[in-house]
From TrEMBL:
Gene3D superfamilies: Spore Coat Polysaccharide Biosynthesis Protein SpsA, Chain A (3.90.550.10). It comes from the Bacteria. This is Glycosyl transferase family 2. One of its GO terms (molecular function) is transferase activity. The keyword tRNA processing does not apply. InterPro entries: Glyco_trans_2-like, Glycosyltransf_2, Nucleotide-diphossugar_trans. Keywords: Transferase. The keyword Transferase applies. Residues 9-115 form the Glycosyltransferase 2-like domain. It comes from Deinococcus yavapaiensis KR-236.
Length: 310
């Protein structure tokens, strides 16, 4: 299969010096002749910037540095990277993970297979499972999907994806057609990966690769991390949801409303508009609409909490 089309790995950094070298060292051998890395730091106060400069000097043909004022969030940092990406295919990379040696080749192969069958103008997102590891790379779980009790097939149900994201940004690959449709990432988006998944689901396809291709490192500084889905997690989640510390319905509705405005006139926009109206409804009517339109989360326990607190 011809895999000569170019690809880009965008890396968003912020105070990631302890782990960045290990990640870059896992990316560089996978670049070949058609790939490169673009890094953007978001105003780190540690040694991240100097580390990036060292790598850029050492690998000038493979590493590009995107400069600019701090964006203030991982979502917006990735958004700027994606807007400045020029390759046919783009991977997103966190600063603290490690990629398995065949991740780039594996996801590119799946992407090209689907472009052959669906056409290169179809917005596509391909994503894999992940190995959950601690800060010392000790494996905590062989599958993030099982660890968090996620169902990746929900990535192709728009109503479900409005309610819960099942795509992890550092495990995804997107094509140029998706970037042209989805960018810029709006400020109402919860995260860049969730927004890209919604657009791919609505206008094209989300493809799940059921094998782990990333060591997903968990440590005290994770912006977004993996937590084991168990009774303790559920209780803590409910408590934080009530206090407004986690992503609640109001924030999800803003994301849905942004989608409805951007893609007005599509069937998915109509569904998004229904979801965006949920916070304005009385609680009993809101629950009826959740059931009627299938705005579910993955699993009984999540849905119990969703209906209790929505």
């Amino acid at each position: 299969m011809n895999m000569a089309k170019n690809y880009e790995i965008v890396v968003a950094t912020y105070n990631g010096a302890p782990f960045l070298s290990a990640q870059l060292d896992s990316l560089l051998p996978q670049l070949g002749l058609a790939g490169w890395i673009t890094i953007r730091d978001d105003g780190s106060s540690d040694d991240t910037s100097s580390l990036i400069e060292d790598y850029a000097r050492q690998y000038p043909a493979h590493i590009r540095v995107l400069s600019g004022a701090p964006s203030g969030s991982a979502r917006d940092n990735f958004g700027l990277l994606l807007q400045n990406a020029t390759a046919d295919y783009v991977f997103c990379s966190d600063q603290d993970d490690v990629w398995l040696p065949d991740k780039v080749e594996r996801l590119l192969r799946v992407m090209l297979e689907h472009e052959i069958s669906l056409g290169p103008s179809t917005p596509l997102l391909v994503h894999s499972d992940l190995l959950v590891v601690n800060d010392n790379m000790h494996i905590l779980a062989n599958s993030l999907w099982r660890y968090q009790k996620l169902d990746p097939t929900w990535g192709n149900s728009f109503a479900l994806l409005l309610t819960q994201n099942v795509v992890t940004g550092c495990a995804m690959l997107v094509n140029r057609a998706l970037l042209e449709a989805a960018l810029p990432v709006p400020i109402q988006a919860v995260m860049h990966d969730w927004w890209l998944a919604l657009v791919a689901c609505a206008l094209g396809r989300v493809v799940a690769v059921p094998e782990p291709l990333v060591y997903y490192r968990q440590h005290g500084q994770n912006d977004v991390g993996a937590k084991r889905f168990n009774a303790h997690y559920i209780l803590n989640r409910f408590t934080r949801l009530r206090s407004g510390e986690v992503t609640g319905l109001a924030r999800l509705s803003l994301q849905a409303e942004a989608f409805a405005i951007r893609f007005d006139g599509t069937s998915s926009a109509s569904t998004a508009r229904m979801f965006a109206q949920l916070p304005r409804l009385p609680r009993w009517q809101r629950r009826l609409q959740i059931v009627h339109h299938g705005f579910w989360k993955v699993g009984f326990a999540r849905n119990l909490g969703w209906l209790l607190w929505a």
